[in-house]
Write a structure and sequence with these properties.
It contains 10 helices and 5 strands, in the order αααααααββαβαββα. With about 220 residues, the protein is an alpha+beta fold. It folds into 2 domains: about 5-75, no CATH class; about 105-220, Cytidine Deaminase, domain 2 (3-Layer(aba) Sandwich), CATH 3.40.140. The N and C termini lie far apart (about 60 Å).
Length: about 220
Amino acid sequence: MTLKDWPASERPRERLLAHGPGALSEAELLAVFLRTGVRGRTVIEVARHALDHFGGLNGLLSAPQRELERLAGFGPAKCAQLHAVLELARRAVREEVRRDTVLNTPSKVRDYLTLALRNERHEVFLALFLDAQNRLIADEPLFRGTLTQTSVFPREIVKQALRHNAGAVIFAHNHPSGLAEPSRSDELLTRALKEALAMVDVRVLDHVIVAGHASMSFAERGLL
């Protein structure tokens, strides 16, 4: 039996149109995205296999393209579409963050930082530069690689803050290891950055660590 033989009320696309995307499982949503199955498998079966293979939706979305393309139903075109959907989601959240006062929408900030960093294979350190009303001026990835107090240069961050005429900044970086807990180096780095920026009257509001879907806030832990 193919998907066309299913009752209309049970087909993912028809269910989405009738009841909204929230009514569908992750496999059904992925099936709507994929549209067609492969020989011997319905699109639902292809979607379920992909989710099982990568251990769930997060694993699927963060998988390298070459691994995705090994699965039946995921060619270069589908991989390109999937990456485009993820980038659209990032930009939509970034628009909301830019439009709102950051301190009034901490959940949106965390969502954006998670989307921006969770799929990075190496450590990336970025900064959100804010104006005096805590609205986003710019978000910039500043350093890549293993981050320590000696590899992230406070003077460069001070220069960027002054260039943007920022009144405050939020730092974030990812832990590819998957553990959203600060190391001793993270704490020393945050302290050094806070002291350097205080000399030019720029406040450090937070430092967020992202690991997959999890995140940790220095401000919420009382570490600032």
